[in-house]
User: Fold these one by one.
Assistant:
Number 1:
Amino acid sequence: MTIPFFLNQRYQKILRAAVQHYIATAEPVGSNTLVREYNLSISSATIRNTLGKLEKAGFLYQPHTSAGRIPSDFGYRIYVDNLMIPDHNCTKNIKRKLNQQLDSKVYDCNETFLQKVAQILANLSGYIALITLPQILPNELHHLQLIQISPKQIMFVVVTNDYKTQSILVDIPSILIHDNKDRLDKKLQIFSNFLNSNLKGKSILDIPNSTWQKIDQDFIDYSDFLKGLLKQLKNNLQLSISTQIIIHGVSEILRQPEFSQMKQVKMLIRLLEEEQDKLQSLILDFPESKISNKQVNIRIGNENPLKSMHLYSLIYSTYCQHNVPVGSVGIIGPTRMLYDNTIPLVESTADYLSKMFS
């Protein structure tokens, strides 16, 4: 998220200090505290006025009328995207710990090995570490064919290199519905040739972005139809998701003040025990652009689609085998988490696992 145009340097300094203070103390922040503890070179009156404007803009809010202010999810998002400086010492620390404590020759990149990695990540972060077990790489696509089977339906037949066949039924799109059978058959054969020329020999997880661009260039009128086919193909041939997530660090996170009440503890335990399938699909959900750029994905509070995750932030990244994503590593913590530490930890752990599995 780009920084809003009205956040000048003064506003940014005060917002950064307010977020950092709340992350460090879990205490709402006021102008006197910022003057006393941060070298902002700004008067208390100016800071007080700026805090009020930041609250009106939605970056901060007051839990009580007499209290100081704390960051909103939107405030954290602006901080993470624009104001935070990652602590690269964390990168060095976890790389050193992983190399010192783990020997891939001993653990052979098995479940015990991942348990150790998750334990190290949880200890260093102070939050809950999640690692999905690696998924088996999918078979390559061998042949794809579109066949009309009724006046209103098409069968999309997909054969993998082990000669297993899957078929997907799709409705004939409105742009093709008025073609006679011969004309439709010719178009379906052209589409089949296009799909084979671009996808044959590729894994479903390794479809290049150029395929989508060529759809727009060569078949602009049919791009929605063909993109829909590729989406259904991905859904049908998606790797079977492992039923297990390795979880470490529950005792670490319970030391945070957010979990001083039993209600919050029960909500967290319920999330990890009863909604593990939903949590798993969430941390395995990666936009293609982020996979190609090896970026860390960050969901803060209400940005999480799971309601039970609205009190937490989730930071996660994919790990790969020969550049093909096979699993995910992530951290769950309160929205008041040390993002400048946690993001480098997740990124470095994902890179380490990618090297080990490749």
Number 2:
Amino acid sequence: MESAIDQHLKCPRSLSRRVADDYQPPYAAFVGRASPSVKQVVMGYFGVQSKGPELRERALNALRGLVRAFGSAADDPVHHDLVEYQDASGYDNLIAVAYWDAPEKYERWVNQPGLAGWWNSDDRLRDGIGYFREIMMPRVEQFETLYAFKERFPGVGAIASRLSGEIEEHGYWGSMRDRFPASQTDWMSAKGALAVGQGQPALGGRVVITGHDNVCLIRSGQDWEDTDGEERTLYLEQIEPTLRAGMDFLRDNGREVGCYSNRYVQFIDLDGKPVEKSFGLGHWRSLDQLERWAEAHPTHLRIFVTFMGVAAKLQKLRLYHEVSVFDGAAQRYEYINCHPGTGLMRDAA
């Protein structure tokens, strides 16, 4: 048994863990280990927004253009996923999710003349569809992961170069925080507020939102591609409907519990066809507000109880999450032609 916090990220604790030192978790879980040379990563969500089937192909072509821009050069992302989501206003959002293992690589990539020129062109204002990019750059002390499997790590786990042994910090309320290296000395409390840095969300066009210190992001995923028989039925008929209800609550009522934005996304291929994987993606004002919802809100407790009731029967379902917090200066949220409820625009002053 080992700590989720890698050896080179450990330091003397001034804040205690939520459990005793002799705690034994109820089941095995793992984290990916990035090389000590990785100091900061980039999580980029690149979206195309449209409404109605008549714009579907135009939006898919725009998504394909983004994927072509990822290419295979040295500064391209380490990994990317394609997902889609229909928001509460009925808009379809196609999203390419990409990860870099260093901010300087992302900066070189995004500032390529062709790519930067395309994004900044006035033509984007006349395309008839919307675009957004939500960029977050956590230091390695500012994110944690948890996997119930040992290979093919998704999301930021693609940056990992090795696998941990079984970890101690899981299976109890508060374990998410305890897996953050920063939690050894920092409460990671929210400071400041979202703000509109450019444009006016109600008017559309180009809008830039600035983040505040310790905005929190959770990506919590499910992969049922390999399931069959009873396990597939349990997931599709018991776990997934309960999960969807919780995700819909956060989408529609998240503001009351501190959730800025929640998307329950489905993986797709380049033709827009669904793949049997999904994840919930939530921006929260703070880690502690995410914790309070997880520990006490009926919508999450129903998810937890439903899962625990069938957990012993799950062998092939792949479950994971990644949770991050960010410095205010390490976030940039940009929207073009998107409706004012998109992403972090809704809650920006």
